Amino acid sequence: MTRVFVTGLGAITPIGNDVETFWENLVNGVSGAGIITAFDPTNFSSKVACEVKDFDPTKYMSRKMSRRMVRSTQFAVAAARQALADANFEITPENAEMVGVVVNTGGGGLATLEEPTLVLHEKGPRTVGPFLVPSVMANASSCLVSIETGAMGPVLTSTLACASGNYAIIEAYHMMQRGEADVMLAGGTEAGISPLIIAAFARMQAISTRNDDPAGASRPFDSGRDGFVSGEGGVVLLLETEEHAKARGAKIYAEVLGGSLTGDAYHFTAPHPEGIGAIRATKRAIKSAGLSPEDVDVIFAHGTSTPLNDAAETKVIKSVFGERAYKIPVPATKSMVGHMLGAAGAISALAAVLSFRDGIIPPTINLTDPDPECDLDYVPNTARKQQTNVALVNAFGFGGQNVVLVLKRYDE
Asked: Is 267 a known active-site residue?
């Protein structure tokens, strides 16, 4: 069995445009939420989002290429370049064919279609840009990461809504197990803070309307939660096989042990109330890693801050772990970065890796009045110094897709 290690990290997030800034703010409980600036939200019932601030794509690509990329792809390319630099790994003509890319997304460039559609109707077809379709297609992020970095191995994008970023790491792991690549850039990206998408989420009553308290709007597992807060950003991890990483003396952050994907076959947007699909995903993920439930000592929650998800996820954890569930820390990163949709699972995976590195579990902020149905240890409001060894990373997507990733602290 080929072992797969995490050797490089990259991140563009609502609380920092590099890994260390993101991690410092996450540990310190800093919220990335605020009143939306991407457009005028005056007439919207929900005016809050976790936006990426002060991002300059030309730090990572030419100005010409940046103009041909939608915002989510810019995030992906930037995070991939960070991960390569962090790993001190260069893609060359000699190794390029064994370096692959899996950068997943929920909506791709969907948000970017809104403005050109309006211009088309106002001014006619000659106003439509020649690169519109290739820039908004879902696989643009993976393909442009490949083009920009020179990676010539397997290049793939899959869309699993909010579970996309988590599954990218599992899919890359499987490719490496099959011998298709020695190195993979894997993660998720999203940029969906646009009038149409925010209006659609609001009509679903899925997002928070706590407009008078943006920093307190995302409150997983709290009795006052009223919906998720939209987020954006991109996270990419560099994965290497054991042989490849050790041959070049790479620093190793963590090991990918496995994971699982299941379906609920229940509802297009709501989780199964008893979490039957997520329970199967959790059990299968643990089994795929060759572990037992007793080996798991931290769970990075999906924790969306919606009434249905948080209650169902709590039931899932209790069902799998029994009484021991009350002793396992269950932090929720979305309390600070919002729901980054296609990047959500990837940012939780990044947090798990950094938690291993520093022996710190980040908090779930805004947890001031716990829901009686949500009675586990969510690490409320303050980070905890605690070394953990095996993490589950949960991600559950619209359509009933349940992804659970298993990561392990690396110890030589």
From this structure: no
